[in-house]
Design goal:
Length: 335
């Protein structure tokens, strides 16, 4: 064990943060749980009524009211494990007042499946470069798991990745419970990039559905997607990994097929002719893949990996290419 004092802070007020609070609470290891969110109205509602008014509102929140706050420095100061749960596009803004000193010695867990815009860095790299957090103190929480199914206590498997697998196992012991099983990995690059890419493939899957392709084509799309994902993570961080594991293939499958997927829902609307703005307004939630595909397009300029699916999604979302035409062009490149 790395620590005797089990203190965890969850940073973010959305669906996944709420699900994280629930799984931490339902875990048997004694611990203190803290929760930061940006909205004072939301925090006050949770303190008073014990439910998040905006996301997963069926979940009962049983942490003490004084552990919920909009004061980020204070919440970070209370905990040894800091679980980041703000969508990547807004992370820099959320951490604007936080200094490397505030995070010194903390174990920082990224539960985010996105890339920091402009920096074009996955979260672990960003935290290491901006906040001097050593990789040995960084963890990634990933795997095929929708917040909505956590609320329903459906059996789910999460992967916790860190170069320090003992630390990953320690955090796993704080989050697993009767419906959450945990897998430990040392592949933070592959786990992070895999989660980022699968969001883009879920958008592609939704677009295809939206323009009228059926299940037969979707299976070919996803079979090509896992090969594209493997090519990319191999180029960025070549290690011996099995791409069929839950953190890679599993996460791709759940996102590409699930009714709960925000990225697939967003893609479906794009396929049906919504503009990006109107699709975003229609959803109360954030589709990370929209931001990520722009970053991936930039990052891949260094690696030049053959990524026809990512390029098709980029062309539709950022170059305003007609979805039906672009998907027809993509279909010709799949095998
Ligand atoms: N939902 C899920 O099942 C899973 C999500 N994740 C990951 O968790 C991370 C958080 O996503 P999730 O909880 O689903 O988010 P949601 O889509 O449920 O909620 C959106 C969150 O983003 C915040 N937000 C929206 N606009 C802004 C803005 N302009 N500035 C700052 N914050 C903003 C919202 O804050 P506010 O309410 O105050 O507007 C809210 O906390 C993502 O990286 C996602 O990929 C990972 C695994 C599963
Ligand atoms: O990452 C997730 C599930 O593993 C959530 O993203 P989606 O909602 O797009 O599926």
């Amino acid at each position: 064990m790395h620590t005797n004092k089990n203190t965890v802070a969850v940073i973010g007020g959305g669906s996944w943060a709420t699900a994280n609070i629930k799984m931490l609470t339902d875990n048997a290891t004694p611990k203190e749980i803290y929760w930061w969110m940006r909205s004072a109205t939301q925090a006050e509602h949770i303190e008073r009524f014990r439910h998040n008014p905006n996301y997963l509102s069926s979940v009962e929140v049983s942490i003490p009211a004084q552990h919920i706050s909009t004061d980020l420095k204070h919440i970070i100061s209370q905990a040894e494990f800091i679980v980041l749960n703000v969508p990547a596009a807004f992370l820099k803004e959320a951490l604007a007042d936080i200094t490397p000193e505030d995070l010194a010695g903390k174990k920082v867990v990224s539960a985010i499946k996105g890339i920091v815009p402009d920096e074009n860095l996955i979260i672990g790299e960003f935290l290491n470069q901006r906040y001097n957090i050593p990789f040995s103190n960084l963890l990634v929480l990933s795997g095929p798991c929708h917040a909505e199914e956590v609320a329903l206590e459906k059996l789910s498997y999460l992967t916790i990745a860190s170069p320090d697998t003992e630390l990953a196992a320690c955090f796993a012991g704080m989050i697993n419970n009767r419906y959450i099983k945990t897998i430990v990995s040392d592949d933070i690059y592959g786990t992070e990039y895999g989660a980022v890419l699968k969001n883009v493939y879920a958008i592609a899957s939704g677009i295809c559905h939206g323009v009228g392709y059926g299940d037969n084509f979707q299976s070919v799309l996803i079979s090509n997607a896992i090969r594209e994902l493997e090519r990319f993570v191999e180029a960025v961080h070549p290690i011996d990994r099995d791409i069929k594991e839950s953190a890679y293939l599993g996460d791709l499958l759940v996102t590409a097929y699930s009714q709960f997927s925000r990225n697939r829902t967003f893609g479906n609307m794009i396929g049906k002719g919504y503009t990006v703005k109107s699709a975003q307004l229609e959803m109360n939630m954030v589709a990370e893949g929209y931001y990520a595909v722009n970053c991936l397009h930039q990052v891949n300029k260094n690696y030049k990996v053959f990524m026809p699916i990512c390029e098709a999604v980029y062309a539709i979302l950022y170059q305003k290419r007609p979805p039906a035409l672009e998907m027809k062009h993509l279909a010709e490149q799949l095998s």
